[in-house]
Structure formats: structure tokens, C-alpha cells
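Severity: low
Component: inverse-folding endpoint
Summary: output formatting inconsistent between runs
Steps to reproduce: submit the following C-alpha cells with default settings.
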């Protein structure tokens, strides 16, 4: 039962975040939306940002699980499934991004993206002798590029569907991630 209540609180937060920025959401808004008491809320979460962090952790775990299930390169996305959450909740992610004036929200979003890209690069580099620093640099670069494209799309600075945009990037960039990993592996071997 406690798990269902916790999920109801998260779901209420998600609904509210689709309507307004995180800094405008109160504990009262969440408890009114899901019909629980403030004490129940505080049993599960310390504040609204704690709910946000739990939501993003859940989304990160789901993205990593999906990457494993469909053997997905995180930097090439012809498959629609990784974007299902963003595509179906553009307003939610837009409001989360608009809350980025709050450093806490920005840190949570960036940490989620870093975790996903770090995991993806680790998978792609498996069996290669690339240094940890190079893997981190590659993950950081492509994670930042990915966030930038999503932000531009959410702010309507890029035309077309996000699937079309990433399919075009996939075509334009090709195997550049694997090439970077390969170059890092060769460089690491030379240093030994």
C-alpha cells in the first residue's frame, strides 16, 4: 500500500509539472491532487524537490532498462521508444526545463542525463581499452548535445518531430561515437 501511495504522489507531481514550473508546485497542490494528507506526503518525501528527484531517478532507471532491452546506442535513436516519455509529456519536460532557473532542478536533470549517457558509453566501450577519462568526455559531449537538441525542440527552435530530428542526426553523425571510442582505445594502448 505504501508503494501505491508513493506512486500516487509522484503521479500527482507529474500532472502538476505538466501544468506549471516546479517552483510553483506546493506540497498542498500535490496532496490535494492525490487526496493524501500532508503527514502522508512527508512520510514518503521531504519536499517537492525530493519528489522531482524520485521521478527523474525512476525515468533514468526506465531509460537504462530500455537501452538494455533493445540493445540501443544512446547516441543514435532511430527507434521511437526511448522518446516515448518526452514525446507524450512535452509540457512536463518543458516546465521542468523552465524551472532550470532553480539550480536544484537543473542539477537533477543533468544528473539523470549523465547517468544515461555514462551507462550507454560504458556499454559501447565494453571490451575496449579506452580510459575512464575519455569515456566520461565522450558521454559528457553527447549528453550535452542531446540536451541541447531537446531544449531547442521544446522551445520550437527546431522544426519537425523529435524522431525526424534524431533520425537526421543519426544519418549526419553516423558512427562518430564508436569512432571516438575506437580512437580513445588506440590512444590508451599507445600510452601503455
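Observed output (run 2 of 3):
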Amino acid at each position: 500500500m505504501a508503494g501505491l501511495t508513493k506512486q500516487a504522489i509522484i503521479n500527482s507531481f507529474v500532472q502538476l509539472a505538466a501544468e506549471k514550473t516546479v517552483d510553483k508546485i506546493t506540497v498542498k497542490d500535490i496532496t490535494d491532487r492525490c487526496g493524501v494528507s500532508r503527514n502522508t506526503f512527508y512520510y514518503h518525501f521531504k519536499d517537492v524537490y525530493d519528489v522531482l528527484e524520485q521521478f527523474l531517478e525512476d525515468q533514468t532507471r526506465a531509460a537504462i532498462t530500455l537501452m538494455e532491452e533493445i540493445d540501443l546506442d544512446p547516441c543514435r535513436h532511430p527507434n521511437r521508444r526511448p522518446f516515448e516519455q518526452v514525446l507524450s509529456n512535452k509540457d512536463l519536460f518543458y516546465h521542468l526545463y523552465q524551472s532550470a532557473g532553480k539550480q536544484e532542478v537543473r542539477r537533477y536533470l543533468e544528473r539523470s542525463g549523465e547517468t544515461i549517457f555514462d551507462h550507454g558509453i560504458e556499454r559501447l566501450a565494453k571490451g575496449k581499452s579506452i580510459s575512464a577519462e575519455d569515456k566520461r568526455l565522450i558521454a559528457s559531449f553527447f549528453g550535452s548535445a542531446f540536451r541541447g537538441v531537446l531544449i531547442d525542440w521544446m522551445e520550437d527552435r527546431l522544426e519537425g518531430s523529435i524522431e525526424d530530428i534524431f533520425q537526421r542526426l543519426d544519418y549526419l553523425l553516423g558512427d562518430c561515437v564508436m569512432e571516438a571510442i575506437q580512437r580513445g582505445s588506440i590512444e590508451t594502448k599507445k600510452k601503455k
